[in-house]
Write a structure and sequence with these properties.
- With about 50 residues, the protein is an all-alpha fold.
- The protein has a domain of about 25 residues.
- It contains 1 helix and no strands.
- It is rod-shaped.
- The relative contact order is 0.08.
- Keywords: Membrane, Transmembrane, Transmembrane helix.
Length: about 50
Protein backbone atom coordinates (compact mmCIF):
# COMPACT_ATOMS: atom_id res chain seq x y z
CA UNK A 1 0.00 0.00 0.00
CA UNK A 2 2.77 2.40 0.94
CA UNK A 3 4.61 1.73 -2.32
CA UNK A 4 1.48 2.58 -4.34
CA UNK A 5 1.06 5.85 -2.43
CA UNK A 6 4.71 6.82 -2.98
CA UNK A 7 4.45 6.05 -6.70
CA UNK A 8 1.29 8.11 -6.98
CA UNK A 9 2.97 11.03 -5.21
CA UNK A 10 5.99 10.73 -7.50
CA UNK A 11 3.78 10.75 -10.61
CA UNK A 12 1.90 13.80 -9.32
CA UNK A 13 5.24 15.49 -8.61
CA UNK A 14 6.49 14.73 -12.11
CA UNK A 15 3.30 16.16 -13.63
CA UNK A 16 3.74 19.29 -11.51
CA UNK A 17 7.42 19.63 -12.51
CA UNK A 18 6.51 19.22 -16.18
CA UNK A 19 3.82 21.92 -15.89
CA UNK A 20 6.24 24.31 -14.16
CA UNK A 21 8.90 23.59 -16.81
CA UNK A 22 6.43 24.37 -19.65
CA UNK A 23 5.33 27.58 -17.91
CA UNK A 24 8.97 28.59 -17.42
CA UNK A 25 9.70 28.04 -21.12
CA UNK A 26 6.64 30.11 -22.10
CA UNK A 27 7.77 32.96 -19.83
CA UNK A 28 11.33 32.88 -21.19
CA UNK A 29 10.13 32.83 -24.79
CA UNK A 30 7.74 35.69 -24.00
CA UNK A 31 10.54 37.78 -22.53
CA UNK A 32 12.79 37.09 -25.52
CA UNK A 33 9.96 37.96 -27.92
CA UNK A 34 9.15 41.22 -26.10
CA UNK A 35 12.85 42.14 -25.93
CA UNK A 36 13.38 41.59 -29.66
CA UNK A 37 10.11 43.38 -30.45
CA UNK A 38 11.22 46.39 -28.39
CA UNK A 39 14.61 46.37 -30.12
CA UNK A 40 12.90 46.43 -33.49
CA UNK A 41 10.59 49.25 -32.37
CA UNK A 42 13.27 51.41 -30.76
CA UNK A 43 16.97 50.54 -30.65
CA UNK A 44 17.59 52.93 -27.72
CA UNK A 45 15.49 50.86 -25.27
CA UNK A 46 18.36 48.63 -24.12
CA UNK A 47 21.07 51.29 -24.10
CA UNK A 48 22.18 52.07 -20.56
CA UNK A 49 23.44 55.53 -21.37
Amino acid sequence: MRMMKDERLMIEGLKHIRRVFILQNIVILGIIFIATFCKVQDMKVFRIY
